Prior knowledge:
It is a single chain. The chain is of the alpha/beta class. It has 2 domains: 3-65 and 335-431, Aspartate Aminotransferase, domain 1; 82-332, Type I PLP-dependent aspartate aminotransferase-like (Major domain) (Aspartate Aminotransferase, domain 2, 3-Layer(aba) Sandwich), CATH 3.40.640. The chain has 15 helices and 14 strands. It has helices at residues 17-30, 34-48, 51-58, 79-95, 99-119, 132-140, 159-166, 188-194, 217-226, 246-249, 275-280, 318-334, 336-357, 381-390, 412-431; strands at residues 3-5, 8-10, 67-68, 126-129, 150-154, 174-178, 199-205, 230-234, 253-257, 269-273, 374-377, 393-394, 396-398, 401-404. The strands form 4 sheets. It has a 7-stranded mixed beta sheet, with helices on both faces. The protein has a 3-stranded antiparallel beta sheet with strand order 11-14-13, with helices on one face. β5, α7 (159-166) and β6 form a beta-alpha-beta unit. The longest helix has 22 residues, at 336-357. The protein is globular and about 65 Å long. It starts with a strand and ends with a helix.
Amino acid sequence: MPRRVKGAVVSPPSISRTLALNYFALCDSAVLRPDQRTGALELGCSAAMDERERAWRSEFPITDRFNYLNNCSLTPLHRRGRKAIERFASEWTEQGGRAWYDHWIGEYEALREDLAGVLGASVNEIAIEPNVSAGLVGIASTFDYAKRSKVVVSDLDFPTDGHAFLAVADRGARVEFVRSPDRVRVPLELFERAVDDRTAAVCTGHVYFTTGWIQDIRALAQICHRKGAVLVVDAYQSIGAIPFDVASSGVDYLVGGTLKWLMGGPGIAFLYARGSVAERARPSAVGWWGVKEPFAFDVEHLDYGTGARRFEYGTPAVAAIYAARAGLELVAEIGIEKVRERHKLLSQRLVDGALDQGWTIRCPRDAEERTPIVTLEHADPAAAVTALRAAGVICDNRPGLIRLSPHYFNTLEEMDRALALLEPLRVAHAVA
């Protein structure tokens, strides 16, 4: 049955009655009333923050009300992003379709330059996508599976990484999954064993979304290239969180987006295709913006765009472009190296505290091995996350896991407060 916890209705979807009773009794002792949250946030954070941290946090109004630890899913909208979206709305209101030529196409190409700068790529190696799934579908459409049928994916990868290639099974693709021995990492030797002369591609994450573990992409590229295979990297969980130079990595294709660590919101993603790879590619998933002269409106001929541009689809979401550029501007001001150091500090506080409380973690213990994704095993993570939300902590759940992910604007004090709220949830879980 639904239970009211300090003003919030919480419905544990699958936990037993015994766990539910213990769970809510213990949660009640840790939950702040809604009228207490803002004051506690302001008091604790002002005591723990220096001037730099206060400046960082001031961009994110949500931090006045919540302890926001769901950044690997979606970073909250910042003031700069809101202003950029309002600028787009004003242009649309005042100019209508003329804004395409006066503003929006220029913003589109400026975004391409911004993304190339973040990745260390040339502008012709960047395609702008509506989402990562679309980028992967385009890549999957380029291979001749009659010559090489195998595609290697790990069982820790995000579903789209497998789905994009499972969907072309009727063209001859055969997906082989390598299995993580500890549900945290996939050793390189497992990929090396799986990649052979029949392998068209390896498609895998730079960082695994349930564990935060950082793969050695450069070594994986070498394994692929020794066998003549292509490496496709899903970098959604890494770009913006760790310093990365795509040119020196050896990857052939890379996809990512702006809604996580790049702080640009949903609706914009990107695809990197190494120059020589892109020029050979003939994607069958293509749109009118993926040709050399889209505004020639030639329906009778397909003349692929230069480099990675051939992977682009149709009319882009312009508001999302404005938000994305604002997020990338923030990242550039702070510096990814600084973000990385901050991530290690904050996430290690969570990991150490969780281990001290007796949690079983599903992420590397050492911050050097992971992004700030911290996952804790729990029998009913959805109910736990709902209880945390009622207490003013926003995080997320994945199957069997509570997932927390601080960003650079969070504070150590917030990590400690989250841990204080997590401890009774672990006890409730243990009692069941």
